[in-house]
Amino acid sequence: MPLRHPQLRADGKLAHLLTIEGLPAAMIHRILDVAASFIGVAERDVKKVPLLRGKSVFNLFFENSTRTRTTFEIAAKRLSADVVNLNINTSSANKGESLLDTVDNLAAMHADLFVVRHSQSGAPFLIAEHLNRNYQGRIQVVNAGDGAHGHPTQGLLDMYTIRHFKKSFTELRVAIVGDVLHSRVARSDIHALTTLGVPEVRVIAPETLVPSGVEQLGVHFTTDMKKGLKDVDVVIMLRLQNERMNGALLPSAQEYFKHYGLTREKLALAKPDAIVMHPGPMNRGIEIDSAVADGAQAVILNQVSFGIAVRMAVMSLLVAP
Amino acid sequence: MPLRHPQLRADGKLAHLLTIEGLPAAMIHRILDVAASFIGVAERDVKKVPLLRGKSVFNLFFENSTRTRTTFEIAAKRLSADVVNLNINTSSANKGESLLDTVDNLAAMHADLFVVRHSQSGAPFLIAEHLNRNYQGRIQVVNAGDGAHGHPTQGLLDMYTIRHFKKSFTELRVAIVGDVLHSRVARSDIHALTTLGVPEVRVIAPETLVPSGVEQLGVHFTTDMKKGLKDVDVVIMLRLQNERMNGALLPSAQEYFKHYGLTREKLALAKPDAIVMHPGPMNRGIEIDSAVADGAQAVILNQVSFGIAVRMAVMSLLVAP
Amino acid sequence: MPLRHPQLRADGKLAHLLTIEGLPAAMIHRILDVAASFIGVAERDVKKVPLLRGKSVFNLFFENSTRTRTTFEIAAKRLSADVVNLNINTSSANKGESLLDTVDNLAAMHADLFVVRHSQSGAPFLIAEHLNRNYQGRIQVVNAGDGAHGHPTQGLLDMYTIRHFKKSFTELRVAIVGDVLHSRVARSDIHALTTLGVPEVRVIAPETLVPSGVEQLGVHFTTDMKKGLKDVDVVIMLRLQNERMNGALLPSAQEYFKHYGLTREKLALAKPDAIVMHPGPMNRGIEIDSAVADGAQAVILNQVSFGIAVRMAVMSLLVAP
Q1: How big is chain C by its Cα radius of gyration, in Å?
Q2: What is the pLDDT of residue A26?
Q3: Residue A101 and residue C77: Cβ atoms within 8 Å?
């Protein structure tokens, strides 16, 4: 049976970043520590370090996401890597080439790192296992989102954000609000929070937007926003996908906002110093009110800034000599 | 009331380049002088200067224009900046994110400069005001074309071209020919020419392709090509948009060429050393005859070369420390 | 009458790379020798050399091909060039600008090298002749595939691969199998093999997929796979284009595989140390069986690696001072 997590080397070091599931707490903290050392780079006059000079990073996007691609592209460029963007919808995939043939082809160009986005869960794992088997660990993979499965750099940047503002994880109450069922971010966050010792993770959502047996992930589930937000330190709002809004799972966007949209009134139930997070892009007036999105407790843009540093950290840990 | 031109700092320096309207003549000349210093860079063996090394330039194109994007991309790369291209049709805009949320997101990645193209007039102003309000002047905007409003770097490169070939503005007669109504170039040029002291600017066009009250911009208007071209020093031809050619505003492309297409015969009415300009892409045989486009008086490709230097000048004035 | 091959300078040096047709054997060997010197670059820690620093390379793709574009982009970046990708379907071509006006425009930006892909045979020749006429040899062209005509860097990398594994060309039997009629690779390879002194080149294909008079190219033609593969040293498989598979030219993909698909059994007819090549992307189970594609005799991924070095060689021979 193949290993479920080809991301760890025999010596315990990170070979790929595929999922937060199974990452030891010490490794998560290590990544966040390295990220902290990159925060300053973005504030320098010359926002570059030469760590990945002459390395070839391929943004291999089988699903379009300008936003996510941009974060990895800018992170790689600030590490001085050579970056090539491949949007594979319009390319070899059309010509019927298999995923692994595409990967082999780019590997033969002496790729150092693949940043992989795919609509199908598990695609980055498949690629990583293939690379481990055939390229002696010379080529690394970062999962930039695979179907509903995970989005580990988003999970890590969320942890960076919480650690930055709350210092420690071990006393926190964290609420995750919204469409947990379809959210790769939610899955990554739940795994990370649990691993880092957060004693109470709550999921707040309508029944139709939660996977069955969600409690087995170690979280408390409630459909009641008021109950769920009571005294939390951190609120992680999830994006409501457009395609859900008028579908069978929800009555309407307006109805959703009434019950689950984060307003000042609902936020007042959380601790006074609670922070509000959102992975973006936001639907203002649907899952979050503008007064909250732009309010003093929102750390949504900090997440983005930290995200660049976290991606630089992951890339440099994987690739830098 | 917000300032109409958030592009000027309190100290009179350039904070953004949004429009030529309101730019003092001294500032236009300053930009052209800096551009002149970059002309030589493109002729060197190594066409690069390190002025923007480690800076992050985002080409934020809400409207597709490979041609314009390329000019800014090459200019930024010759300044050694890191450039990221974002084509927002196919991205967050689809996901319903607001313009300013997109901007905040990229600003949080520590962007230094946004080159903005948008189909709606005023979008770059909105972005610049937002950045001024929220980022203490750390992030700059260049308008790369907003609706029918303006295209200031095109205006500036046109002024560079005229200054290069005619040395001085104060004795010139300049004719602008064609679809002034829909042309952002025409508006930018009229403002620049007037500011720089050109005593006579003529607009030559059919009635249907001129904004009502065009004379209030300080130009002379005529529908008569022969009268309009008489003794001019500079002819600026405008592109006839495909969508106008068979629309209600014009009888046909052939008819247009007959009356307003620049031929050798018509050009002979101008001064013998008159120069012919065009912002490109040209419709040969519609607004301009090939004999003129490729003739000795055409400076159309010089405009393109100067355009790179002008964009380097604008970027370095805005961003370089 | 214009020269058919504007790619050679008066002094016999390479001015452009447009076609393998007419390239002297010595020049092919020279390119392969330079490529050999670049093989090591891709294995270094810093995979870059400064040969094209500050040069502007434009990937001018009038036909989409992410795969080919990527190979040139990575090659140019490893030479430290500034690379701009232009996909012209969605750009000026739509606005009705002529091919040569587009080229002039980019030339005026002080381009150093155009990598041109076009669906029409001869387009890169047209561009090269235009540049020779108007830019005194300052701007070079590499043909990255023009219609069914040619794909010279693919031909050169195939020669590199054969030379690498077989050392010499003068004793070889080479079989080219498949859709020769529509293959630019086949044409390039046949010219190169003949020029380099391969005594026996065989074309194996159904009658419907071979140009009439193919023997006039100096090859032996057979429809019989078994006869054709007998004792060959090199097998070059061609990709069966999707659009042929169910068209009038072929009964079906299954039928094609039965007769012309390369299986272990058929390959056993070749010499025991025969190598198997394919330009990619492969249709596994159609023109090639997976057991062969992944087998010990396949050098398909070596071709890709060598291809980067060959493209670096071509670019540096054309552009480096």
Answers
A1: 20
A2: 95
A3: no
C136 interfacial to chain B (CB closer than 8 Å)? no
What is the reported pLDDT for B10? 83
Strands B200-204 and C173-177: unpaired
Percent helix, strand and coil across chain C, each rounded to 5? 45, 15, 40
The CATH number for C25-151+305-319, chosen from 2.40.50.140, 3.30.565.10, 3.40.50.1370, 3.40.50.360, is: 3.40.50.1370
- Any idea what the Cα angle at residue B320 is, between residues B126 and B42, rounded to 5°? 105
SS3 label, residue A202: strand
- Rounded Cα gap, residues B115 and B84, in angstroms: 10
**How high is the pLDDT of residue A1?**
36
Question: Alpha-carbon distance B102 to B110, whole Å?
Answer: 13
Name the residue ranges covered by the structural domains of chain A. 25-150+306-319, 152-304
Mean pLDDT by 10 residues, chain A (321 residues): 67 92 94 97 92 97 92 98 87 65 96 95 94 92 90 97 98 97 92 97 95 92 97 97 72 90 98 97 95 98 98 96 66
Q: What DSSP element (H or E) covers C310?
A: helix C300-319
Distance of alpha carbon C261 from its chain centroid, rounded?
Answer: 22
Asked if residue A213 lies in contact with residue A190, where contact means CB atoms within 8 angstroms, the answer is no
Superfamily of domain A25-150+306-319: Aspartate/ornithine carbamoyltransferase (3.40.50.1370)
Residue A145 is classified by DSSP as E
Give the residues across from C266 on adjacent strands: none
For residues B182 and B201, what is the distance between their CA atoms, to the nearest angstrom? 18
CA separation (Å) from A260 to A239, A274, A275, B240, B274? 11, 17, 17, 52, 68
**SS3 at position A223:** coil
CA distance B183 to B192: 15
Residue B3's pLDDT is what?
47
CA distance A258 to A261: 6
Q: Do C88 and B66 touch (CB under 8 A)?
A: yes
Taken in order B110, B116, B118, B123, is the CA torsion positive or negative?
Answer: positive
> Are residues B95 and A281, on separate chains, in Cβ contact within 8 Å?
yes
Taking the C-alpha atoms of residue B105 and residue A8, their distance in angstroms, rounded to an integer, is 32
**Helix H or strand E encompassing C265:** helix C264-267
State which residues of chain C have pLDDT below 70: 1-5, 90-96, 245-246, 321
Helix (H, G, I), strand (E, B) or coil at B224: coil
Compute the distance between CA of residue A214 and CA of residue A203 in angstroms, rounded to an integer: 8
Q: How far apart are CA B142 and CA A294, in angstroms?
A: 26
Does position B296 have pLDDT exceeding 80, yes or no? yes
Q: How far is B116 from chain A (nearest CA, A)?
A: 16
SS3 label, residue C256? helix
- According to DSSP, the β-strands at A140-146 and A82-87 are unpaired
Residue C104 in tokens: 């002039």
- How many CB atoms are closer than 10 A to CB A132? 20
B91-101 tens-digit pLDDT: 444 556 789 99
Q: What is the mean pLDDT of chain B?
A: 92
Please name the fold of domain A152-304: Rossmann fold (3.40.50)
Q: What is the 3-state secondary structure (H, E, C) of B158-189?
A: HHHHHHHHHCCCCCCEEEEECCCCCCHHHHHH
The answer to whether B246 contacts chain C (CB < 8 Å) is: no
- What pLDDT does C253 receive? 86
- The answer to whether A95 contacts C42, with C-beta atoms less than 8 Å apart, is no
Interface of C with B in 53-72 (CB under 8 A): 53-56
Residue B43 has a CB neighbour count (10 Å cut-off) of 9
- Which tokens is A112 given? 């150092």
- What sign has the CA pseudo-torsion A44, A46, A47, A49? negative
Cα–Cα distances in Å, from C108 out to A133, B274, B309, C158, C312?
A: 49, 21, 11, 35, 24
Fold of B25-151+306-319: Rossmann fold (3.40.50)
